[in-house]
Structures are given as structure tokens and as C-alpha cells.
Design a protein that fits this description.
Elements lengths: L17 H41 L13 H6 L3 H32 L5 H9 L6 H11 L8 H14 L8 E2 L5 E3 L5 E3 L8 E7 L25 E7 L23 E6 L2 E7 L5 E4 L8 E4 L19 H26 L3 H9 L4 H12 L1 H16 L3 H6 L5 H4 L2 H9 L6 H30 L1
Helix pairs in contact: 1-14, 3-7, 3-10, 4-7, 8-9, 10-14, 13-14
């Protein structure tokens, strides 16, 4: 006799209060989450949402904020030459700075991988990020100073220029009047009357401080009354006796010669011979043919010293400020791209090397395509950042060229608070800046979401 299988007991229906309890727990969880998020939402609304809405509304009113002008501020914004220049400068920033930074960051990230002290090098390049824009602006304002004694860049440029081109030792010298020497249009000094071989010429000069004389300057040589046949002689000296005394136009014993002064013999409008004065200021020309000559001190003897490059002039102020921006943000781009580079599959790089690809081919055909998502995120982030740049432009650009360097952020401040006192127009500029930034922000958010998937 077979035993019948045991009968399974059927589970009873769920308790009546189970579903409501689960819903109540979920509602309680949402309430707790909202409670924790509420302070952040409150701050976001007070510091972001409300100012944006207020600026949008304020942009439709006049400077006093009492009269509704509709789109008048937006129309005026695109008629104002200063605003148009700010838009052009912002466009230059957006096109140049992010592209340069991304390129530099990529190159440095690839090179750092091959450096022994990679961490120290990254730290060194990333350190400018710890410096505030205000402090960096002050540093670069000093570095770009046009005075070579203050600006380090112009000091380097002047040093290189003077090494290859030389410099005048007598920028302030001039001929004493009434001594038979006249000044030309090019700054040169020449004898008023022509001279022939066998005679001597004197060039009495003033305007040089005794302390500014070159090293090795000797007491002035007395000009000979006559020279040998076929020879012209003369002396160039400082016609000034320390402590007073002496006679004008005559080389006295306590007066100094001017060494290194270039002297030219001119005939028929062309230079036929040239020489340089000795330590005592004397010079001579030999082997000259008979005939009249004009002796001339060319203007190069009196050229003012080279002052370097006007970094903060109207033509270079924007590139100079972009250079300061690159110094600050290159480390940021390098670190982000370096993180993406570290995540690349090494087997693809090794396979390319085994197949015979060189490093340039690997970089161009494998590294860059694989890093494209990271490069795009870095580029878009920097585009957003440069649209809002304010501190560097405001601090580095001097007052006279502030308008030539202005961008939308500085123009918005100048119109609203920096003397314009037109917050309606300033709000319109703020709305324009917001509209330009939002597409880049949306693109960046989409890239982040796509990378998370």
C-alpha cells in the first residue's frame, strides 16, 4: 500500500497592512532625503536661481530701474563699440585659450609619462592653480612692465637685443652749439664746412654726465693742428670741465674723451670710410684721396637704449593676458588628460609597437583617438571658464588699454558698477553671458552622463 504525497499548505494572503507600510517607508525616505537636500536647494535658489531671474527681469528696465524699456538694453548692447570689442575679445579667448591649453596639456601629459620624476613635475606644473587670479594678475602685471629695470620679460628681451645688436653709449649726447657742427634730420652730427686731408676736426659734445662715461675713457687728446698728407684727424670729447673752468670748443686737460664713437667720412652723399674713436676720443682716417669731405657722427651713436616690447600695449595686451591664463591652467589640463591617459588599454599601444609603429604614429592614430572623450571634456570645461574670466583682465590691463582688453565679464562690471551705473545694460550683458555659457554646460553634462553609461 503506497503512501499518498504530503499536501503542501497554501500560503495565506498578504497582510492587509503590508503594502501601505512599504509605501509609508518610501515616503518617509523621500522626506528624509528632501530634508537633507533642502539646505543645498535653498542656497542654490538664493545664490543662483534668484540672481538669474532678477537679472533677466532687470535687463528690461532702464538705468534707474523704474521705466520699462523692453529690449532696448539688448539693442543698445549691440550698438555700443565697447561691448562689440568685448564680444570680439571674448571670441578670441574662446578660440585660442582652450585650444592651446588642451594641446599643451596633452603634450605634457604624454611627455610626463616618460620622465623619471613625473610626480614632482606634475606638482610643479599644478602649483599655479593654488595661486589666486588676483595674485597671479599682480605677478604678471609686474612681469610685463615696460621698464626693463622692473619687468623681467623686457629685461630678458633687452639683454638678448643688446647682445646681438649692441647699444649706444651716448643716448643723451649732443654737439655744443656754435662750434662748426650741425645736427641732421636723422639725429647725426656733421661738420658744417667740408675738410680736406691734412687737416684736423674737433667734435665738442655735451649732455653726458661724467658718471655715465664708458669704462676706460681717458683724458681727451688735444686735436693736432695739422695731419699728414692723405690723412684726416680729429677728436670727440666731452666739452665739460668738472668743477667749472676750461674753454668751450677746446679739449682741456681735465676733460674726457668719448671712446667708441663711430665717425664717418662722407663724400658725394656716400660714406667712403669709417672709424671708431680711441679711449681719449681721438680718431684718424688714412689713405683718403684729395678733395673735400664731411665728417659725420652717425645717429646710431645717440640712439636711445632699446626699451623692449610693449607687452601691455593695445596690440599685445590680450595675448599677454592669455599667456598668464595659460601659466595658471596648464597644470589643470595636464592632470585631467594624464588621468585619462593612465586608463588607456596598454595592450593596444604594445600591439602597435610590435607591428612596427613609431611613437608619433602611436600618438596620432591611437592615443589621441582614445583620449577624444577626455579631450572634449577638458576643452568644453575650459571654454566655460574663459567665458567668465574677469580677474586677470581687470588686474593686468592698465587703465589706458582696459578697453582694448575688456571681455564680457569685465564689460558687465564696468557698465554696472565701474562708472557706467547702468545696471539695466549690465544685466543684459549678464544674460548674454549666461546664454553663451549654457550650451557649453549642457554639452559637458551630456558628456558626463554618456561616460557614466
Amino acid at each position: 500500500m503506497t503512501a499518498s504525497p504530503p499536501v503542501k499548505e497554501q500560503a495565506g494572503p498578504p497582510a492587509a497592512g503590508a503594502a501601505p507600510t512599504g509605501r509609508r517607508a518610501r515616503r518617509r525616505g523621500r522626506a528624509v532625503a528632501l530634508l537633507f537636500v533642502f539646505p543645498a536647494l535653498l542656497l542654490l535658489g538664493a545664490l543662483v536661481v534668484y540672481p538669474v531671474l532678477f537679472s533677466v527681469g532687470r535687463s528690461f528696465f532702464d538705468a534707474s530701474g523704474t521705466r520699462f524699456v523692453g529690449g532696448g538694453n539688448y539693442t543698445e548692447m549691440f550698438r555700443d563699440p565697447a561691448t562689440l570689442k568685448a564680444i570680439r575679445n571674448t571670441a578670441v579667448w574662446v578660440v585660442v585659450a582652450p585650444a592651446l591649453l588642451t594641446g599643451l596639456g596633452l603634450v605634457l601629459a604624454v611627455l610626463v609619462e616618460k620622465v623619471r620624476w613625473a610626480t614632482a613635475f606634475k606638482l610643479l606644473l599644478f602649483m599655479p592653480m593654488a595661486v589666486s587670479f588676483l595674485a597671479a594678475g599682480i605677478v604678471f602685471r609686474l612681469a610685463y612692465d615696460e621698464d626693463p629695470d622692473k619687468g623681467v620679460l623686457d629685461a630678458a628681451v633687452v639683454a638678448v637685443h643688446d647682445t646681438f645688436e649692441g647699444t649706444s653709449s651716448y643716448p643723451s649726447a649732443r654737439a655744443r652749439e656754435g662750434q662748426g657742427v650741425t645736427q641732421g634730420h636723422d639725429g647725426s652730427y656733421a661738420t658744417t664746412a667740408t675738410v680736406s686731408p691734412g687737416h684736423s676736426v674737433t667734435f665738442p659734445m655735451v649732455g653726458v654726465l661724467p658718471g655715465d662715461l664708458p669704462e676706460g675713457a681717458a683724458p681727451a687728446a688735444a686735436a693736432p693742428r695739422a695731419a699728414a698728407a692723405g690723412e684726416l684727424r680729429g677728436v670727440v670729447w666731452l666739452d665739460f670741465t668738472p668743477g667749472g673752468g676750461g674753454r668751450q670748443g677746446r679739449a682741456d686737460p681735465r676733460e674726457s674723451g668719448l671712446p667708441g664713437m663711430k665717425v664717418e667720412a662722407v663724400r658725394g652723399g656716400g660714406t667712403v670710410a669709417s672709424t671708431t674713436t680711441a679711449a681719449d676720443g681721438s680718431f684718424r682716417f688714412t689713405g683718403l684721396r684729395t678733395g673735400p669731405y664731411t665728417l659725420r657722427l652717425p645717429g646710431s651713436n645717440f640712439a636711445p637704449p632699446y626699451q623692449g616690447v610693449s607687452w601691455l600695449g593695445p596690440a599685445l595686451v590680450t595675448p599677454a593676458i592669455i599667456g598668464a591664463y595659460l601659466w595658471i591652467w596648464t597644470g589643470f589640463a595636464m592632470v585631467l588628460i594624464g588621468a585619462g591617459l593612465a586608463a588607456l588599454p596598454r595592450d593596444a599601444l604594445e600591439a602597435a609597437r610590435i607591428d612596427g609603429a613609431n611613437e608619433w604614429q602611436i600618438f596620432r592614430r591611437i592615443t589621441v583617438p582614445l583620449l577624444a572623450p577626455v579631450l572634449t571634456v577638458v576643452l568644453v570645461t575650459l571654454v566655460i571658464n574663459v567665458m567668465k574670466v574677469f580677474d586677470l583682465v581687470y588686474v593686468i590691463a592698465p587703465g589706458p588699454v582696459q578697453e582694448d582688453a575688456t571681455v564680457l565679464a569685465t564689460q558687465m562690471w564696468l557698465v554696472s558698477f565701474g562708472g557706467g551705473n547702468d545696471q539695466g545694460l549690465g544685466s543684459a550683458l549678464g544674460v548674454l553671458l549666461l546664454l553663451l555659457v549654457v550650451p557649453a554646460m549642457v554639452l559637458n553634462v551630456r558628456r558626463f552622463r554618456r561616460s557614466q553609461r
